[in-house]
Amino acid sequence: MAAGALGRIQTETPALPEALRRVGEAILADPAEAARSTIITLAERSGSSPATVTRFCRVFGFAGYAGLRVALATETGRAAQANWDMGVGHEIGPTDPLDAAIGVMAAADSRLIQETAAQLDAGTVAKVAEAIVEARRVLIFGVSTSGAVAGMMGGRLRRIRVPCWSHADAHEALADAALLGEGDVAIGISHQGRTREVLESLGEAGDRGALTVAVTSFARSPLAELSELVLTTASRETTFRLGGLAAVHSQLFVLDTVYVAVAQRTYEQTNEAFELTIRALESHRVERN
Amino acid sequence: MAAGALGRIQTETPALPEALRRVGEAILADPAEAARSTIITLAERSGSSPATVTRFCRVFGFAGYAGLRVALATETGRAAQANWDMGVGHEIGPTDPLDAAIGVMAAADSRLIQETAAQLDAGTVAKVAEAIVEARRVLIFGVSTSGAVAGMMGGRLRRIRVPCWSHADAHEALADAALLGEGDVAIGISHQGRTREVLESLGEAGDRGALTVAVTSFARSPLAELSELVLTTASRETTFRLGGLAAVHSQLFVLDTVYVAVAQRTYEQTNEAFELTIRALESHRVERN
DNA sequence: CATCTGGGTGAAAATTATTCTCAACTCGGG
DNA sequence: CCCGAGTTGAGAATAATTTTCACCCAGATG
Predict the structure, then answer these.
(1) Global pTM value
(2) Chain B nearest CA to A110, separation (Å)
(3) Which domain covers residue B171, as residue numbers?
């Protein structure tokens, strides 16, 4: 749970109450320095109190300040090894040269994927995969960009014989959710965890006894709160990448790990399905010239 | 001073007096666990006392135990990241532990994005963007996974007022392609560059005078050969990731650069469109709780 | 062999860091 | 206007860390 703390702090700090937010900002301004500081020093630097810093640690799942310090140090070590720039990312503007912008974007996306991996709990991924392997029905809910991710993953799981559906139409999604029951799995994808359609469908699925899984950037969000299991995505909203677009790579990555965990558990079936589907689709490919 | 502490502890521990040596051994047995432990716990684990652990810290140049803890955490974080980086290329099998698989996947996806950026020609991206800005119609063709990418990017461009379409139905796609003309843009997405439906639609668009753009992993492929402009994607097919799935992150990345280049050229229009669409969608989000 | 000196050690006292408690304040809803 | 929920930090309580010093042991010296 301590893993990936910096990414989560970056994502969630803007939405925290005043004093907690100032603590988050002080940490993000210089994470390595924060790791080296006593709680008294960090409280002073952020214009808050030791009690507030302790509460901040609790918000992010740490028992106390020592846990946060160790996590920050671990991640700054990780970032140093990966040669990440630890400061706030450069914002692309309308006059930036395109080749520079491409470099900034690649570095940012690269980092998002690794931050997502760092904050992912393998135990939770395994639980989701195990439930999917046993499920008679799997539904994936998402709207707009998250909807495209849902469609992609739905198709992918179907190709290894997981009975999986996703719908662009919110009514169809909700109707299918109402038909779920014990032993089924419902996954809701929403960057902010506040999309009404996704909340509604996932809530319905949960009411029917399905296992509910949230894929969201915000561990503290309505979607996370109504789900039994939560898989968080690192995200960064920028000038040209707002809302769900900030988390596309991360969402794909998270669901990819679930897919791989399912495939590992159904290896023979997966291999057979690959052969069948590849052969069937061969006629949709022109010959090599 | 903190740099390389673990290495120095490893080198110097055998020559330390009895109790100090036991402290060094306990740290080396599990550095990450030591970083998470209080001085009392580590003293117990090493069969010594808190005073001895404090002295140990002094021997290695730390003012106190907090300094040692932070250094241990930093170095274990660095080592974990290096371990990930070394895992690139490892083929995930059915018995691989999931947390290791996650690390391998993150490093691999990260690398793919970096490679895609490195092989991307900013001049070609700029040409595509300029053509899109002037176009009366933009069509994006793709099937299966590439189709989901096409839909995602289509929606995204529409949100900044680019008249853009993508179709899941191959007949609809082909029919629209037949209606393109000079000054229009058609983008075909296909990992191997051999998908019949995409080739057919992009070919038809080219016959009608539209600018044709290929997004593919293979510069030498039927799709690349029938296109005026080619944007290549890095890809790696693995045990559980075949065909278009090997290039999803790369395809998204490439089209993201096109999108940003378009947005840069239409900055005012893009900002206005953001405001309008975000406001319109606000009612589809529940309030923060 | 006896004595002295220096280094190592940990128990206990002292100090500092961290966590907990609760009163006061603010804001929003009825 | 009142009430309830949430936030905050001062101060008390607790835990962690550092310092002090008495004791022990080994080696050197007379």
Answers:
(1) 0.88
(2) 4
(3) 120-284
> Could you tell me if residue A111 is inside a domain?
no
pLDDT digit string, tens, across residues A143-161: 989 999 999 999 999 999 9
Minimum-distance nucleotide, CA of A43 to C1': D9
Contact B78 A73 (CB under 8 A): no
Distance CA A206, CA B167 (A): 33
pLDDT, chain B, mean: 91
Locate tokens 């558990």: which residue? Answer: A265
Residue B23's nearest nucleotide, by CA–C1', is C9
Burial class (CB in 10 A: 0-12, 13-18, 19+), A115: buried
Q: Flag whether A112 is in a domain.
A: no
Rounded distance in angstroms from the CA atom of residue B47 to the C1' atom of nucleotide C2: 35
Q: In this model, does residue A183 exceed pLDDT 90?
A: yes
DSSP H or E stretch at residue A186: strand A185-189
Asked whether residue B174 falls in the same domain as residue B58, the answer is no
Q: According to the model, what pLDDT value does residue A51 have?
A: 94
Sign for the pseudo-dihedral over CA of A76, B253, B109, B168: positive
Q: Which two tokens stand for residue B149?
A: 């990418």
CB pairs under 8 A between A and B: 240
Specify the number of domains making up chain B.
2
A64 touches strand C (CB under 7 A): yes
Specify if B87 maps to a domain.
Answer: no
A98-125 pLDDT, tens digit each = 998 898 889 889 988 988 998 899 999 9
B243 touches strand D (CB under 7 A): no
Q: Is the confidence at residue B1, as pLDDT, over 60? A: no
Q: Do B264 and A95 count as a contact with CB atoms less than 8 A apart?
A: yes
- Distance D19 C1' – B22 CA (angstroms): 22
Q: What is the CA B109 to C1' C28 distance in angstroms?
A: 47
- The SS3 assignment for A120 reads coil
The DSSP-derived string for A218-285 is -SSSHHHHT-SEEEE-----BTTB-GGGGGHHHHHHHHHHHHHHHHHHTHHHHHHHHHHHHHHHGGGB
pLDDT category of residue B284 using cuts at 50, 70 and 90: confident
Burial A129-152 (b: 16+ CB within 10 A, else e): bebbbebebbbbbbbbbbbbbbbb
CB hemisphere CA count around B253 (13 angstroms): 37
Q: pLDDT-derived band of residue A289, with 50, 70 and 90 as boundaries?
A: low
For residue A69, give Cα distances in angstroms to A19, A37, A83, B31, B51. 19, 8, 21, 15, 22
> Does some domain include residue B249?
yes
